[in-house]
Fold this protein.
Amino acid sequence: MPASASPEETPRRATPKAALILPLVIVVVLLAFLFFKLRALRTGEPQVLPSALIGKTVPDFALPALSGVPGEPSPVPGLASAQLKTGKVSVLNVWASWCAPCIAEHPQLIELSKQRIPLYSINYKDKPDAARRFLANHGNPFRAVGADETGFTAIDFGVYGVPETFVIDGSGRIAYRFPGPLTPEIVAQKIMPAIRKAEQETATPRS
């Protein structure tokens, strides 16, 4: 019976270079995406995650209401694209009860609603009971709340994650988009100027 080959004599299998490089490429791409996402959230630079819908009409959609949500009008209705095309500039916020940054930004939305700015929302991939508790505990600044349980409508808006806020002009065009939680500084420096600009453009229709 022949002697078995020693470890030194055992031929080594060649490892294809592609098999080693591909996982590295995937990791680099994922890290790059996370870097730009975190940069957008921390620096408040929406241009880092540009929206292809800026200047375009909001997607067509019709979302059901969350029954039992406190607010005015009562009951608070669901949300459809037609409600964003009434001739008045409005703000659309995408949020979820499970989103910690959404809780942090909520006082800013309450303050915006006190300025009589039409404020609407899409409740993203949430459980109805949890969403109702969120609004009952933190207050409801929204004139309408659309329940987007599948997340498909948010995808149509190009939403990367929650929260995200859009300024919509009177004709239903997306004038501005901010990804990440609102702060007093972001509202003062980004959202309010975008609202004023959209109001001016709405008052002077495009030729």
In short: Strands lie at 62-63, 79-80, 90-95, 119-124, 144-148, 164-168, 174-179. The chain has a mean pLDDT of 84. Residues 17-43 form the longest helix (27 residues). The helical segments are 17-43, 100-114, 128-138, 152-156, 184-203.
